[in-house]
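Anyone? Bumping this.
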Amino acid sequence: MTSLTHLQKLEAESIQIMREVVAETENPVMLYSVGKDSAVMLHLARKAFAPAPPPFPLLHVDTRWKFRAMYEFRDQMAKEMGMDLLVHINPEGVEKDINPFTHGSTIHTDVMKTEGLKQALDKYGFDAAFGGARRDEEKSRAKERVFSFRTAQHRWDPKNQRPELWRLYNTRKHKGESIRVFPLSNWTELDIWQYIYLQDIPIVPLYYAAERPVVERDGTLIMVDDKRMPLEPGEVPMMRKVRFRTLGCYPLTGAIESEADTLPAIIQEMLLTKTSERQGRVIDHDSTGSMEKKKQEGYF
Amino acid sequence: MRLRLDGYTVADAAERTGLSAPTVSAAWKAFREGGWEAVPVRQRGRKTGQATRLDESAQQVLVHLLATQPDDDEPAWSARALAETLNARGQTVSPRAIEHWLEARDLKPKPRALDELERQRTQAGRWYRQRVQPVLGAVRESGGSVWKGGVRVAKPVSGVPELPRYQLYLHGKRGALHTRCLTAPPKVNDYLTLFQRLRDHAPDKPVALMFHGADFQASAEIRQWLDAHPDFHLINVPPANGL
């Protein structure tokens, strides 16, 4: 009997988690943030339920500030996958024109992402939501279980988590509770890239190095993706060869200088890196333990 | 010589062979006067360890000068202008030594081989034939000057003290480098000063500048300046075309 490679083991574990959720919950949904983890998660979901399409819709909680390339890719993928894509934008945020520049990253993230997500889950009555978070991204994600239970108000209590011994998952929910499920929790960034390479999974081109217009903000390279980005007096964006290790709202996502314009080159870069991909996310540096606070309030 | 015989310019032949333009030019002259036998063939450069090293004070002056504008009407610092300024201050340094010093600090970018696009059946080739060639032709016909240039961030070099790494650079006739270094990304005034100095370099003549590395479309001030100076033809070299 041949043993499985580490990627095959991770794949099998993720597929088992997805099937478990579909078997045990009534109305699951897959959060689709258009990034590389979402791409892998979607690929795994299609494998888990093939030849039928996955028995749940995709949900994109839109902030209106994603990269243009992400929107193009999202619409193209939804068309090709033949799955329902639900897009939710917090209407209160739209009404108040919440944005990262005027209101800051904290308020923008809280209103457009956290509140937007909670609204969408309540609106459609989803009792389980798949997310592409991984333990190696950030310390609060490291301690979160694969099945993360949330109260009726979507709050997370890190001190009250269920044991998941021998990969056995207790999926019983109290009334009003919901579950956030992380099938990729045990994957690393390098695993994700290797899997994308081996399975030839399409991803947003922003992950590949190319010359892009960027400005520097507090040592972070921010791409000028559209005309809404306010430039400082006399500032001229420079064209620099950059790529993104993580994708979010473009004014809050830092690029890295890189020559990696192919998947093997990205994997080689990953082998040498000593920093987390989340170092490029401005929102993670708002304050000490900011991600854990956000998660307690309902952020993914 | 074979490249020159095939119709390549001195600058093209120099770039392809890695020789300097004066070397190619001298060899071409020797070839025309005395044939193959007259072309000198010898080991390139000095023997290892015999290079002229710039002393600490000369290096400090160079770093200071590169952050400023030259006093004469040059658009930015050339190796020759830097050497002359250092010599005037009593430090004997050759332009060649300064070129080596710049190269060792990743401050000597090569001119982009845009002319080669003329023969390419690619999107970049079409861009060159349709957008660039007509402009260059008109400028040259009017006796104007053509420059290549850009803005870049020099890579840090291990073992070399940190320098201002944002570099504005130009390549003029025969690929001669003119440059200026900054500690922060250039602002509108830095670009406009460069453009104005290019105009002043050859007054009353049109100027074409093929520039790479800045998104000028995002700057209203630059667009206004270009509108006000129709004899200055700024050609943005598009990104991601491997130029």
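Late reply, but here is one note on the structure posted above: Chain A is about 35% helix and 15% strand.
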